[in-house]
Amino acid sequence: MIKKTVFSGFGGQGVLMMGYVLAVSAMKDGRHVTYLPTYGAEVRGGTANCTVVVSDEEIFSPVASTLDYAVLMNKPSLVKYEPLMSEGGLIIINSSLVSDSPSRKDVGFVRIPANDIARELGSDRTINMIMLGALVAKTGITTQDSIMNGLSEIVKAKKASLMELNRKGLQKGAEYALKF
Amino acid sequence: MSEKKLMSGSHVIAEAAVRAGCRFYAGYPITPQNELTEYSAAAMVRTPGGTFIQAESEIAAINMVIGASMAGARAMTSSSSPGISLKQEGISFAAAMELPLLVVNTMRGGPGLGNIAPAQGDYFQATRGGGHGDYRTIVIGPASGQELADLTRKAFDYADHYLTPVMIIGDGMIGQMMEPVEFPDPIDIKKLPTKPWILDGAKGRPSRLIRSLILDIALEEAHNWKLVKKYETISREITSWEEYQTDDARLVVVAYGTAARIAKGAVRKARERGMKVGLIRPITLWPFPSRVLHEMTGRIKEFLVFEMSTGQMLEDVRLAIEGRANVHFYGRPGGVISTPEEIAGEIQGLYQSRQLDGE
Amino acid sequence: MAKKVFTKPKYLKDAVFHYCPGCGHSIIHRLLAEIFEELDIRDRVICVPPAGCAVLAYNYLDVDMGEAPHGRGPALATGIKRVLPDRIVFSYQGDGDIAAIGTAETIHAANRGENITVIFVNNGVYGMTGGQMAPTTITGQSSTTTPGGRNVQRDGSPLDLSQMLAITNGTKYIERTAVNSPKRIKDTKKAITKAFRVQMEGLGFSLIEILSPCPTNWKMTPVEALKWVENDMTKFFPIKVIKDEVGKI
């Protein structure tokens, strides 16, 4: 099994962190992973994206010419990545920020009002966890437990309250995605 | 070994260098390898006896490293293509003076300022010496995070053992991509072999000289041949490569670094489509694994060289094969990253046109 | 038994100088060898010779030597000194080496306050390559590339590198001397000695600029060259302490 996921949005939305969390979590599951961010001049401009490949065997190219999953945080990302989706792939959009929908019918689509859910949870910091929760729940690319395990390695100050907030975000995102 | 860490290639090199006993880094900012410089800055600060200097220029950086090497330290610098051009004077001097040091080139699109995308256009510069005069540097082309960790250590060992500059060449993709890496444990630098040639003040011994100026032509000629002898030894001892599905292959793809990863994906796709295709991935680019390619010509008559350049390693493949087989080329210069599908398409076209699918 | 009044310094090797008659390098080499002995530092000194006539300094000075590419002495010396901070590291450089091709390395080593010493031999020409214009060739001075004399409009003015370096915070002691008379030679020895002491005390960057005759390329007799240093060079490069943040040491 090899799955290629892109996370894309504006710089500052934490799309690189989302990809990083997924990559570390999958690594800790013992899977092969690659994480490839955009770099250089582009990073300092508007858009940011990263491609995470998770596989049960050696990964050759870390670049995705076709995508299995896309987690998108702005409209330009939808325009850019919709054509690259493989048949049967899945697009997850933060619908608090993007009202558009993909036009392709051969690709799954989930709208997650992540900013609104985050507000209910009382912290904008959970937006990315909500999106990741949705991805994990819909695709099974890894588990919520793995993500928490990955987070515990990444987040240096493991404040219990913060980890609890992250767990809630993941859970809410998952619940919302499964109802969608 | 430590537990697996997800790290970018640039960080891996810097961390592996410190673990290999590197205690001196000098460099100058240039994209796409600034992460290596920045990581080194932090790593040298927290390492006892470590020195980091942000140099005023690429030229100053390589010369600081030369000085550190003369003083006995494991030392390195890193840059990207245009910056490596500037360092070439120093690399030539280091080769002439037989100084161990490591240079990392995170290659970008070129010539000129080019762009910061992954490319392999500096192969000639790296493998032919790069600076003026008659010399070679050991050139290593890793293709994964784990190889970066392992080969960075080897690079320092080679440099010390053979008294020569060593270059690791990668590109922005190798440098920026994060992969799980297990690092070897740090070495104890006190246990490294002593260097009986360093400049540390002539206490209780005759004064030493490290120079490259040899005005006497007979001596300079002798020095050149001495270097050649060393290069022959290096070629015998460290040439390395990876073979992938070559046993029954009728067509062999030759690629290194990032291009080799893409080519490997393409070979797998071609295999899935029933084509008998393999891959040779040179790991040392100088010395080049000529012999394995040459010996393959007994059973393989079609080779496809794939590079992210207009065809540089291609010449080494041709030299190795000496006309005993057909050498084809596919290149994407300028920072273009091919897809495995694209290369698989090239393989398929060749497979059919050379009628390799018959019995 | 007669008293010995003159002998070869201990750390000058048994080799005949290749320098031209009247050249200042041999005097400066001798001073260095004397200072190594007097300060008892020969076992701790590492010299970085330049590209130029003095590249062959290793034939004469009996200390560890690591040759630098043209102009890169201060960068290379930086590398040595940072690895071995308790050694005494100095670069020996000519005017073209230090003030033209190596300007960047010089200014930045000085500005970082590298605890090294630079011996800057200013003879106003590229000597080894045959007498071309140097950054310090004085206005009106003829060279093989300034026929008719250095013309400010065409060639720019002579560069006072020592003065430039003095404004950087990292430099602690800069003095300009000359080796065109016994008195000036003695003053030069004092200045170099002090510069090494500045380094030994860990105080920072020190540089001694030494006006030095080059009769061959100036197309003068040695005696004329000594006078020319005194009467012409010093107009542009006055003999003086340019910066001293150290005082008595």
Write the layout of secondary structure elements.
The complex is a heterotrimer of chains A (180), B (359) and C (249).
Chain A: E1 2-10, H1 15-28, E2 32-37, H2 41-44, E3 47-55, E4 67-72, H3 75-81, E5 85-94, E6 108-112, H4 114-121, H5 127-139, H6 144-154, H7 160-179
Parallel strand pairs in A: 1-4, 4-5, 5-6
Antiparallel strand pairs in A: 1-3, 2-3
Chain B: E1 5-8, H1 9-19, E2 22-27, H2 34-46, E3 51-54, H3 58-70, E4 74-79, H4 81-97, E5 101-107, H5 123-127, E6 138-140, H6 145-162, E7 165-171, H7 172-176, E8 178-181, E9 209-210, H8 217-238, E10 241-244, E11 251-254, H9 257-272, E12 277-282, E13 284-286, H10 290-296, E14 302-307, H11 313-321, E15 326-331, H12 340-353
Parallel strand pairs in B: 2-3, 2-4, 4-5, 5-7, 6-7, 11-12, 11-14, 14-15
Antiparallel strand pairs in B: 1-8, 6-13, 10-12
Helix pairs in contact in B: 1-2, 1-6, 3-4, 9-12, 10-11
Chain C: H1 25-38, E1 45-48, E2 64-66, H2 73-83, E3 88-94, H3 95-101, H4 103-111, E4 117-122, E5 125-126, E6 132-133, H5 152-155, H6 161-166, E7 171-178, H7 182-200, E8 205-211, H8 215-218, H9 222-236, E9 240-244
Parallel strand pairs in C: 1-2, 1-3, 3-4, 4-8, 7-8
Antiparallel strand pairs in C: 5-6, 7-9
